[in-house]
Amino acid sequence: MSGNRHRRSRKPIVVAACVASAMLSALVLQHASAxxxxxxxxxxxxxxxxxxxxxxxxxxxxxxxxxxxxxxxxQDGWVGIGVGPDTSPEGKQYGALYxxxxxxxxxxxxxxxxxxxxxxxxxxPGDKPAVMWLSIADAASGAERYQQPANGDDKNPLDIxxxxxxxxxxxxxxxxxGQTATRFSLFAKxxxxxxxxxxxxxxxxxxxxxxxxAGVVQRG
Length: 220
Fold this sequence. Notes:
The structure is a single chain. 0% of the residues lie in helices and 34% in strands. It is built from no helices and 12 strands. The chain has strands spanning 62-65, 73-74, 78-83, 93-97, 103-108, 114-122, 130-138, 160-162, 167-174, 181-190, 193-202, 217-219. The strands form 2 sheets. It has a 7-stranded mixed β-sheet, with no helix packed on it. It has a 5-stranded antiparallel β-sheet with strand order 2-5-10-7-8, with no helix packed on it. Residues 1-9, 17-44 and 207-215 have low confidence and may be disordered.
C-alpha cells in the first residue's frame, strides 16, 4: 500500500467479494414517484476525467497519492483505489471512498444546460451499510448542493445506498445561470463506499416521440 503516512493510520481498502449483478443492457431506470424513464443513452463527450478510476494502473488495492490520480482531488491528499476484475463493473479498478475524505473534480459547464450524472456504487461484505452523497455545485462557491437521485428512496432522498452488490444511480442537474465551472463531489456518509463508472455529461436531445421525462430535474 502506498499510504504509509505520518498523519494518521488508515483503514485498509477491502476488495468487494461479490460479483456485480448483470448490467442493465438498456440502462433504463424509473423514478418511483414520477414513473418516467431515463433519457436515451446516446453517448456525448464525457466531461469527467478518470470516472472509472483506471488511472494510475494498480496491481493491488491501496492508497495512491492524489497528485498521481488524474481528475480527482482528495481532501486529505490520498485516493483509495480498489483492484478486482471480478468485482468492478467497469474495467479492473474502482474508487474506495471513506468518510471525511471526499473526492472532487471541477468541470467546465454551459449555463442552462441539463446534465445527466451516473455512477455505480457498492459496499463490502460484512460491513455496515455503505451510504454516500453526491454534491454538484458552483466551483466558485464553498457551499455544497447535495443531489437527489432520480431513482432514490423518498424516505432518505439524498442517500446512495447499496449492500455488497453494485447498484446504478443517476440524476439530472441543470447548470445555473452564469455557472461556467462546476464542482462534482463524492462524499461517504457511512462505511466504505466503492464507486465506479462515474460520469457527468450533457443530457442527450430526445428523439421525436420519445418521452421527455427522466425524473425530477434538479437545478443548481
